[in-house]
Specification:
Elements: H1 8-18, H2 35-53, H3 57-62, E1 66-67, E2 72-73, H4 76-87, H5 106-119, H6 121-140, H7 143-154, E3 158-163, E4 179-182, E5 188-198, E6 207-216, E7 226-232, E8 234-236, E9 242-245, E10 248-253, E11 264-269, E12 282-287, H8 293-329, H9 352-384, H10 388-424, H11 435-442, H12 452-463, H13 466-486, H14 493-513, H15 519-522, H16 526-549, H17 555-571, H18 575-584, H19 588-591
Parallel strand pairs: 3-6, 4-6
Antiparallel strand pairs: 1-2, 4-5, 5-11, 5-12, 6-7, 7-12, 8-9, 10-11
Helix pairs in contact: 2-5, 4-6, 5-6, 5-8, 5-9, 6-7, 6-8, 8-9, 8-10, 8-11, 9-10, 9-16, 9-17, 10-11, 10-12, 10-13, 10-16, 12-16, 13-14, 13-16, 14-16, 14-18, 16-17, 16-18
């Protein structure tokens, strides 16, 4: 029976037939790898996700973490799954060999981790945060701090978190108030509270290393005055042994709609509950230089944003596979042209509206997975491209599409979750089937790591404008190049023209919005811009996929072509509503008197 977690056939197509990932083995960094090693690690991921992560997904949802007034308690299956994951070496799969990694391409690593996100996104969250925090330490920490914190994280003994938000400073990082006081011996003591910290407390590891954005005493106000600190739950002694409890206290757990298996915490730094060395204050180590913390943290934030998009794609994908399986086996009703009561009911996949929902979901989830893997392939190109120009191009393209990678799957794969519930009918609305949990788990993704609206402001307000708009120019040139390759195809000449016209209109409207340089007027409908450009980018990647299909003609390739055509005829046209709104430059939301709401 085919897996209902992810489609290995589709992943293989995207990785090897479209993105040509096996060709990366010719590059020095990946010289020890081949298609065989890539297949082996993908096989391992599918097996481990199926055996260790999927079985407790519902259990972790119905038995969410509990707070006893001091600690958070998580069901034991979560820790067991994470130990198996850490023992497999997958946590450090893309990291350097010299630190214990396997130097896998990021795109293969991303495809591997998608299995765990689809099988159990809550448990996978601990691993995702730990890996991302480790990479920040490897990039910016001193050799001593790498040895104290990053090495045990790679070994799976320590976990990591990202501590940005505060009760009065969620996405507004300029208002962060946690303060850091320099001590005579060179450490800092931190004071203040952090909110919404995923994985912020549990008993599944020897230690938890918090990466905390805080403001040193005397630092400038705003984001220019933020520094980054490594603050462990337990102090680490010079001989690397675990020392006394640091002054980081769990103040409470947030009770979430979904994604319940990942503890979501309120943390108190320096409240005096534990008082290391007899003095209040959570002891932390400065990472890098003072007042450059946000620049360092952006590495983790951008990685997390792509991880959020990947998680959204994975949750949408598994919902789609469950819905297809259900629709093929659930018999109900008769075709509209065969209503005789003596005839047998047919599988609901025979009904046109069910097919509409399934095909729409297929377009969303396979398009989203393509977007995520393309972004990971750009990351590989930015680090290992053969020329400086190729590396620079990939870096800029990745920067401009990152808001789309985070937000498009979060919006439209959630829609796929919704459609999967609808395909199941009343059963989908019960806890007896996993669809309602998939929906609740995925509903977080349009919110965290920068909401949909914040990604839109980042895209239209920064990413398409920096370097004189070079990122957008490169993106639109790539779209036009693909359209030109498809222009002579009998089947896809029409979609190619549609895509070319959409790219031209995006370019024109971007210029129009910024014609007078007024950000308040330009950004009022930024979300519409994000959605329209996201639809165009995913349409481009669908066209890329069908070009990669060539003239092969089994069910898989026919499905790709049919879905691509459906995307262009039934989904992409919605961009015109968004683009018409942007072109009109309607200022209702600027001029609105909020007293009428």
């Amino acid at each position: 029976m085919a897996s209902r977690i992810l489609s290995r056939r589709d992943l293989d197509f995207m990785l090897f037939e479209w993105l040509k990932v096996d060709e990366l083995s010719a590059r020095p960094r990946f010289a020890e790898h081949s298609r065989d090693t890539f297949d082996a690690v993908l096989d391992l991921s599918a097996e481990l996700a199926t055996a260790a992560f999927a079985p407790h997904n519902a259990l972790g949802d119905t038995n969410e973490p509990q707070f006893d007034g001091e600690r958070a308690h998580v069901i034991p299956e979560v820790g067991e799954a994470l130990r198996a994951f850490n023992n497999s070496g997958l946590l450090s799969g893309a990291m350097d060999e010299e630190v214990g990694g396997a130097q896998l391409p990021h795109v293969v690593d991303r495809a591997c981790f998608a299995w765990f996100q689809a099988a159990n996104n809550s448990t996978a969250g601990y691993a995702m945060l730990t890996a991302a925090a480790t990479r920040v330490l490897l990039a910016f920490a001193t050799e001593r701090d790498v040895e104290r914190y990053a090495t045990p994280m790679i070994e799976g003994r320590f976990f990591g978190t990202m501590c940005l938000s505060e009760p009065d400073a969620g996405s507004s990082l300029a208002d962060i108030a946690v303060r850091a006081e320099l001590q005579p011996e060179g450490t800092y003591r931190l004071f203040g509270g952090k909110m919404w910290i995923s994985g912020g407390d549990h008993e599944m590891s020897e230690n938890i290393v918090h990466l905390v954005l805080a403001r040193a005493v005397g630092a400038p106000r705003g984001i220019r005055g933020l520094s980054l600190y490594a603050v462990p739950k337990y102090l680490v002694e010079p001989d690397s042994s675990i020392g006394e409890r640091n002054d980081v206290a769990l103040a409470g757990l947030n009770h979430k709609m979904g994604n319940r298996g990942t503890t979501n915490t309120v943390l108190d730094f320096g409240g005096g509950r534990y008082r290391p060395g007899g003095q209040a204050g959570a002891i932390g180590t400065l990472i890098g230089e003072e007042n450059r913390g946000l620049a360092y943290m952006f590495q983790m934030m951008n990685e997390a944003r792509i991880g959020v998009g990947a998680g959204a794609a994975a949750l949408g994908y598994t919902s789609f596979l469950h819905a297809v399986d259900y629709a093929r086996t659930r018999s109900q009703g008769r075709p509209v042209d065969a209503k005789a009561p003596e005839s047998s009911p047919v599988p609901i996949i025979r009904h046109a509206d069910v097919r509409r929902m399934l095909l729409t979901s297929k377009a969303y989830v396979e398009g989203a997975m393509a977007l995520v893997l393309y972004a990971a392939r750009l990351l590989d190109e930015s680090e290992t491209g053969e020329t400086a120009a190729e590396r620079d191009r990939a870096t800029i393209l990745l920067e401009v599409i990152t808001p789309i990678v985070k937000s498009w799957p979060s919006q439209w794969c959630l829609a796929a979750n919704d459609l999967a519930i609808q395909v199941h009918g009343g059963y989908g609305y019960t806890r007896d089937y996993p669809l309602e949990q998939f929906y609740r788990d995925n509903r977080l993704n349009p919110i965290h790591e920068g909401t949909h609206g914040i990604q839109a402001l980042d895209l239209l307000g920064r990413k398409v404008r920096i370097n004189s708009g070079r990122g957008l120019t490169l993106l639109l040139d790539a779209i036009r190049s693909t359209a030109a390759r498809a222009a002579n195809s009998d089947e896809f000449a029409g979609p190619a023209r549609t895509l070319t016209a959409a790219a031209a209109r995006i370019e024109e409207i971007t210029a129009l919005l910024w014609a007078d340089g007024d950000p308040k007027a330009a950004l009022v409908s930024a979300s519409s811009y994000l959605e329209a450009l996201g639809d165009v980018v995913v349409g481009w990647l669908w066209l890329e996929q069908v070009i990669a299909c060539g003239d092969r003609d089994d069910d898989f390739y026919r499905g790709k072509r049919l879905t691509a055509n459906y995307y262009f005829t039934d989904i992409l046209p919605r961009i015109h509503t968004a683009l018409d709104l942007l072109e009109a430059r309607d200022q209702t939301l600027v001029e609105l008197d909020d007293s009428i709401l």
